[in-house]
Amino acid sequence: MKTARTAAVLLASSLLVAFGFNQLLIPHRLISGGVSGITMIVGYATGLNIGFLYLLLNLPILIWGWRVLGRRFIVWSVFVVLATTAAMQLIPERPAVGDLMIASVFGGVAVGLGTGLSLRAGASTGGFDIVASIVSRSRNLPVGMLIFALNGSIIALLGVQTGNWDIALYSLVSIYAAGKIIDLVHISQIKVTAFIITSRTEELRCALLPLQRGITVIRTQGAYTGIERDMLMTVTTRYELAELRRIIKATDPAAFVNIVETAGVMGEFRRPAD
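Predicted structure:
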């Protein structure tokens, strides 16, 4: 049931991205930036199918992500990229609106909403989303603004090379709108603290280490029962909370867990790789 729900959310996100591309950006020769922007540039110049180019150029990034971000994230990301490619073959390339500004803003909103939903469900639409996710894990930076910075540099370079600053600047508006929507939907920078009281301390500690967040083990005693147990305290992001819950449920279903929103963090938030 959970797998079906995830697939439905990711399919909807793929349709949103494909709609933003084919109905709002591509008909006006706007560029979304990054890998998808590169595919659009090549497609405009050669007449090749942009959807298939999108799939082809995403393959090496997906392979890189497999090594860094894990199997589940990349398997679902492959699903999203394939679904987006298929949707781009089904949705006609015709302008939904005639105004360039409206097309750039709402094209960015559609692409950003689709991308944010994918990231929130534990996947990616490919391209610089995966690059930004890798960087944000090690540097604790907002994913949407990272994508904007990466994509914006590509668009700026395009403007310098082609001299068509109207298209470049409208495209930057689209990318900025997408980045803001991603951060609103993704909410990866909201921190939460989990207090986990367990009788399976070592098993749970080892299971949580791949999240690369610091874990503190505190000895506790029940006031009523007098039974001593360990409490694991860890700070993570809302983005990783679903994975945290899954690990706890699989390792110690009887664990008592208290999750609270964290106002701020000082010191080392990300556990060192070594």
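Summary: Strands lie at 191-198, 215-221, 228-237, 256-261.
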